[in-house]
Structures are given as structure tokens and as C-alpha cells.
Write a structure and sequence with these properties.
Layout lengths: L1 E8 L2 E8 L7 E7 L10 H9 L3 E5 L13 H6 L1 H21 L3 E11 L1 H9 L8 E5 L5 H14 L8 H12 L15 E6 L7 H13 L7 E6 L8 H15 L8
Parallel strand pairs: 3-4, 3-5, 5-6, 6-7, 7-8
Antiparallel strand pairs: 1-2, 2-4
Helix pairs in contact: 3-4
Length: 262
Amino acid sequence: MIGVTKEVINGKPLLHVANQQHWTECLPTIFFIHGFTSAKEHNLHYAYLLAEEGFRVFLPDCLYHGERSAGFTEQELNFQFWNIVIQTIHELKEWKDVYVHKGFIDEERIGVAGTSMGGIVTLGALTQYDWIQAAVSLMGTPTYEQFAKIQMDYLKQKGIELPLTKEEEAAFWDQIRKFDFSQQPEKWNKRPLMFWHGEKDDVVPYEPAFSFYEQLKAMGSSESLLKFICDPSAGHKVTREGVLQTVAWFQTHLLSTSVKVD
């Protein structure tokens, strides 16, 4: 039987999902990050399928989302987008350290995945943490600086100016470059990495992620470690096939022994 508990780590709520029969064991673990304006509960189907295969899964609420909502309008939340992304990357280490200390996480088998904003978080986290052994980006982009410029141009076209001084704007660009995977591809270190994207995605275009995938592939890798799945008919929504491919990716790269639900 799959168990789900709500827990709070330093004031930050998350869902903890695992096979109850193996609840107290040290298990291979996935951190799954939700998308912009979404919440932890919306990805329980991923967690259930992963837990069935023997993983422990943590689904956190990101800053200003779900139970951490601050009552922002969507426009106000848009201004916080990169703050949320970078804060979540920092919090990943916090959550990991807590559950390693509790004896729940196999430190040699940790994966990170996410949808849309969560995919962006995943790719940025790979630039910071070598303890991530495998990752899946669903509709994410590694090109932080490029994507931020697209967002700013869109806001300016609508007559909306960012509430930043010139000094604050310069500091903003310096900060996000530190997490921009496309500007530091050597941080990949040939860890198993899968991308899933819809070709008709009009929220996070697939081309920058695919170009980055091609760049990594040119560094020398087989499809066993690096994979890009592009669905020609999908938009900004992961198909069931994308969900199943995510589970299969982590099965292949993080499971050395089976602790599946009977």
C-alpha cells in the first residue's frame, strides 16, 4: 500500500509518499517540483507511480504556492518567478539534508524532476548539486537568462515595467546567470538526464531545451544517459506517455534493487 503524509520542514509543507511496507527504510528518492501557480497535490500521480516502483517521493510547495500562498495576484506572482525558482533550488538541499539525517534517503540514489517551472528548477539545481544522480525536465528550459529576457520583453509589450532600479536589475542578471545551465554545460557531468517537451508548447518553447540537449550530446553521450522526447502534438501539458517515461527513466537509472509494492 502506498502511504501519503503531509509534513512540514522549517515551516515549509510537503507531501511524503512511499510504500508503507518500506516506510522506515533508506530508499532511492525523488524530489518532484510543481509548476508555476500549481501546488504539491497536483503531481500526486507521478509520486504514486514512482512509489509503486520502490521510490520515496517528496512533493514540496514552492515559495508563494499552495499552502505557502501569500495572496499575490498572478501578475505579482510573475514578478516573483525567478525568486521562487532560485529559492526552491536552495530549499532542495535543505529538504535533502533533513531526510538524509532521518535515515530515509539513499544518498547514492537521488533524483529531481519537475514540470514547467519545476523543470526549470531541476535544470538549475544540476548546476549546484553533484548529489543529484538523475533528473527529468518536463517542459523546462536550461536557458535562464534567455527565458528571463523573453519574459521581460513580453511584460514591456504589455506596458508593464519591472519594479527594479538599474542596480537591482544588474544584480538580478548576475544572480540568474549562476544557475543558467546553458552557460555552464560542463556541470552536467554526464548524469542521466531526460527532457520531455511538447512541440506546440507556447509557454516554455521547446527549441532552447532541444538546442541544449544537442550541445550536451555533442559532448559525447549515448541515449542511455541523455534523452529528449518531443511530442509533436502536445502543448504545455505532459501526456500520460511523458509521465510513464519519467517513471521509466528513474527506474533505469536509480533502482538497483526492487522494493516494489506486491
